[in-house]
Design goal:
Layout: E1 2-8, H1 16-28, E2 31-37, E3 57-58, E4 62-66, E5 69-73, E6 85-89, H2 97-102, E7 110-115, H3 128-136, E8 142-145, H4 148-156, E9 164-166, H5 173-181, H6 185-195, E10 203-207, H7 216-229, E11 234-238, H8 244-252, E12 257-261, H9 265-274, E13 277-279, H10 287-293, E14 297-301, E15 319-322, H11 326-337, H12 340-354, H13 359-375
Parallel strand pairs: 1-2, 1-6, 2-3, 6-7, 7-8, 8-9, 10-11, 10-13, 11-12, 13-14, 14-15
Antiparallel strand pairs: 4-5
Helix pairs in contact: 1-13, 5-9, 6-9, 7-11, 10-12
Length: about 375
Amino acid sequence: MKKVVILQHRLLHYRTKLFEQLRAAGLVKGIQIELVHGQATRRESIKKDEGSLGWAHKVVNKVWEVGERDILWQPYPSMLKDADLVVVMQESRILSNYPLLLSRLWSKRKVGYWGHGKNFQSDAPTGLREQWKNFLIRRVDWWFAYTDMTVDILTKAAYPSSQITCLDNAIDTSSFKADLASWSTTEVAEAKQQLGIVPGAAVGVFCGSLYPDKKLDLLVAAADLIRQRMPDFSLVVIGDGPSMPEMREAAATRPWMHLLGVRKGREKALYFRMGDVMLNPGLVGLHIVDAFCAGMVIMTTRTARHSPEVAYLRDGENGVYSDDTPEAYSQAVLNVIQDKARLAQMKAQSLADSEHYTLEHMVERFAEGIEAAIND
């Protein structure tokens, strides 16, 4: 049986089902998949986002705090040295990746990258770190790309397209869809009434961490303009983060802006059921998949420092890109929510796309890519 090792510097809770299903899919193909992970750094531990798997190999990372960066060394278990393929995250700060990359010079063991292709939120996209990351792009045997956006980066860097698997990065949508379906229309209407939302009024939802890259000042300014044109419009804000004080100040003078803090699972699903559009003028990431599950149209801007999942947005079909001003953004939103036929069509497309961007689809792509990499 072939053996594949996947390295994660820490195991995120939303990845546990991926690895469970991927391990099972590997066995069907005659491939033994092993997971090695460490633990969160001191600075990461405040997120409380770690998961656990009984069969995974947990190691103790060495961490050096250098300025605002954490530099890591992740030990590699000796019992897994006979792996046919090792998949590492494309993170230049993980020093233990480099010996594995160098070992390709003399070892039959293959090495694959799993990553974005570049740092989409870098403050210095042409700086030394990104140049170094770009240099290493072609120094692996296989690429597991997050989305088509990553595939474009790789092919432009002259990496062979035949050695790329596009994973269509996703999360467990089946659980969230079950949570959405668990609320009756009556219960959603009652929850709206408790918030003071008028029946039939358009509702925008923001869900995510509250920090500057989310363009929250633009969100509030645009919502003010929408409210001027649609006096019954309401904004539901789910999440927490460094920018919460500013958002509390904004909500204090806007009774139609409902600042709910963090909501998870079934409770989060209730507020998603209320929404017509997801207002996210800043960075768009994996939450786009949740928006699709709820049939919401996602609205963002072209200039935001998006994560690669923004590739799922098809302008004018399941979402909208606008220019980066309150006037342009608010008008883009109004163009959708005031046209009931267009809104219904776009919401239907979002729901349809939720059937594609699933954990099961990602597992299938991942397993096929692993098999192809081993046999290449």
